[in-house]
Amino acid sequence: MKENLNKQHLYSLDFLKFIAAIFITNSHFQPLYEGVNTAFATFGVQGNALFFFVAGFLLMMGFDKHKGQNVVDWYKARIRRLWPSVFLWAIVAAAIWNVALTIPRLVLMDGYWFLQAIAVAYLFFYILAKPIKRNGGG
What are the tens digits of pLDDT across the range 45-64? Predict the structure, then answer.
């Protein structure tokens, strides 16, 4: 069976994302460590760095699949992958923490600044990656 790199799933990268998520989650557990040692709530910064490294690597690997796409189509594809899970989370979080659901909160993810930052970062990524890939880099 011939393996194609674009169709091959890299489980090692999933493992790195899992480790990053554990580090990030643990760093938010500082109140749980108050009676023991708050130094246990560490590695959040390292987890963020690892997660963004892996995500950037995967974005660059997947960029070849979308060579002919313009920026609008490429951006819509990225947002279509991101927003449904965020949309669902906003509804679940609103139910759990009794937060009012508004149109800006659901559509613009108002209150979730990191998602807006990711949406802007996607545009910068495309602007920077397009010439790099065109010139044979990456």
Answer: 999 999 989 988 988 888 77
Q: Can you tell me the mean pLDDT for 89-118?
A: 78
Q: Three-state SS across 2-68?
A: CCCCCCCCCHHHHHHHHHHHHHHHHHCCHHHHCCCCHHHCCCHHHHHHHHHHHHHHHHHHHHHHHCC
Within 10 A of 74 (CB to CB), how many other CB atoms are there? Answer: 20
Structure tokens at 110: 């108002």
Distance of CA 68 to the CA centre of its chain: 24
pLDDT of residue 49: 93
Place of tokens 């937060």: 99
